[in-house]
Design goal:
- 38% of the residues lie in helices and 21% in strands.
- It is α/β, with parallel strands linked by helices.
- The longest helix has 17 residues.
Length: 265
């Protein structure tokens, strides 16, 4: 049986993040990718120029089309943009009994442009945290979900992850890419405890799409039948490799993408 994962996210016309990054990741990891587009963005490596939200009823139509035909093994959730789209996605996933849902609570693009309306943050917190198998916030996203300060240490990261568990999350991978130091440290916190994942911090400005890619890689590994911890380990190795190869690409004039296919090109 072919492993299938669906990405429910926004489209990045620059190809480095969102739907495009997710489908590249699925393909690189041997998983057939299908998609549900929640928003169109006019963006490149420099900035987001415009956002066009897809009507919620059309998001619903895409979900129904995909799940009625494909045996979906995992779901990656990315940009949801506004509360009405959050509601449409949650309702659709419930209707189709979706499994292995990985939520990347995308709020701000690498360029600094906001991708999630303020009212949608509460909708994500209330409706998605209890449903997702895993959420993958970076440090600013974790702070926004909790309404608190950005974590300044690994101890703070663990405390914030545990707070997210206390308000409904089943498992949290809190990502330390925005921190300082020679290592990039992520913490997986769930009912089984804490797993620390560290990798050398790569000196490159070409990191566009890292969050999208990591959560998509986890979904891909879950689609293939990996345990959550093994899926996170495999995804961490893949994203580290893709960042290390980022400078092999010469695309755009701003913060370029990571190299999803650096092992093969």
């Amino acid at each position: 049986m072919t492993a299938i994962a669906v990405t429910i996210a926004g489209s990045d016309s620059g190809g480095g993040a969102g739907i495009q990054a997710d489908l590249k990741t699925f393909s690189a990891l041997g998983v057939y990718g299908v998609s549900v587009i929640t928003a169109l963005t006019a963006q490149n490596t420099q900035r987001v120029r415009a956002i066009h939200d897809i009507p919620p009823e059309f998001v619903t139509a895409q979900i129904d089309a995909v799940f009625s035909d494909f045996e979906v093994n995992a779901v990656k959730i990315g940009m949801l943009s506004r509360a009405a789209i959050v509601d449409a996605v949650v309702t659709g996933l419930d209707r189709h009994h979706a499994k292995n849902v990985v939520l990347d609570p995308v709020m701000v693009a690498s360029s600094g442009d906001r991708l999630l309306a303020p009212d949608a943050i509460d909708a994500v917190r209330r409706r998605f945290l209890p449903r997702a198998r895993l959420i993958t916030p970076n440090l600013p996203e974790a702070a926004a979900l909790l309404g608190g300060p950005v974590a300044a240490s690994e101890r703070d990261m663990r405390m914030q992850a545990e707070k997210l568990l206390s308000v409904g999350a089943k498992a949290v991978l809190i990502k330390g890419g925005h921190a300082e130091g020679e290592e990039c440290v992520d913490l997986l916190v769930d009912a089984n405890g804490v797993m620390r994942l560290a990798a050398p911090r790569v000196a490159t400005r070409n990191t566009h799409g890292t969050g999208c890619t990591l959560s998509a890689a986890i979904a891909a590994e879950l689609a293939k039948g990996s345990s959550l911890r093994d899926a996170v380990r495999g995804a961490k190795a893949y994203i580290t490799d893709a960042i290390a190869g980022a400078d092999k690409l010469a695309v755009g004039k701003g913060r370029g993408p990571i190299h999803h296919f650096q092992k093969w090109w």
